[in-house]
Amino acid sequence: MFLGQYEHMLDDKGRLSLPVKLREKLGPSFVVTKGLDRCLFIYPQDEWENIERRLRELSTTKSDARSFVRMFFAGAAECECDKQGRITLPQPLRDHAMLIKDAVILGVGSRVEVWSSDKWREYSEQALDNYEKIAEDLETIL
Predict the structure, then answer these.
(1) CATH number of the domain encompassing residue 63
(2) In this predicted model, what pLDDT tens digit does every residue of 64-75 receive, in sequence order?
(3) Does 122 fall in a domain?
(4) How far apart, in Å, do the first and last CA atoms of the chain sit?
(5) How many independent structural domains does the chain possess?
(6) Extended strands (E) in 18-140
(7) Mean pLDDT in the chain?
């Protein structure tokens, strides 16, 4: 399980250092793709395979399903960390997440998310305002 929030910076080559705790759980090779809410999702290989299997079960006759699958897979890149624990994020993924310099890396259960600091601040402020209401609506067990 991935947990925590970390702040890092992208270098001039689009490389991002991943925290050791997350890197160890991701394994030697993992997949980065376009996430929801203008962030990136990073999945370890086993979780990626589970998602891939479930997405293959979607009906290809439904336009929304086709569109989502196209965007999700076309935006994906298999990555590995270099010796310094950095990954190079392809430009289309950086563009999707509006990543320029400052990034927030989140452990979110079965995946890691990468946000631009500005987008994360906007999102988290709004979500925090509704946190209790969301929990109530979801009937979350806490």
Answers:
(1) 3.40.1550.20
(2) 999 999 999 998
(3) no
(4) 17
(5) 1
(6) 30-34, 40-44, 77-79, 86-88, 102-108, 111-116
(7) 93
What pLDDT is stored for residue 141 in this prediction?
A: 64
pLDDT in tens, 30-82: 999 999 999 999 999 999 999 999 998 988 888 999 999 999 999 899 999 99
Domain membership of residue 83 as a residue range: 5-116
Residue 125 lies in a domain: no
- The CA distance from 15 to 25, in Å, is 19
pTM for this entry = 0.92
Determine, yes or no, domain membership for 62: yes
User: Does residue 130 lie in a domain region?
Assistant: no
Residue carrying the six token digits 């050791």: 20
Nearest to 18 by CA among 36, 38, 4, 39: 4
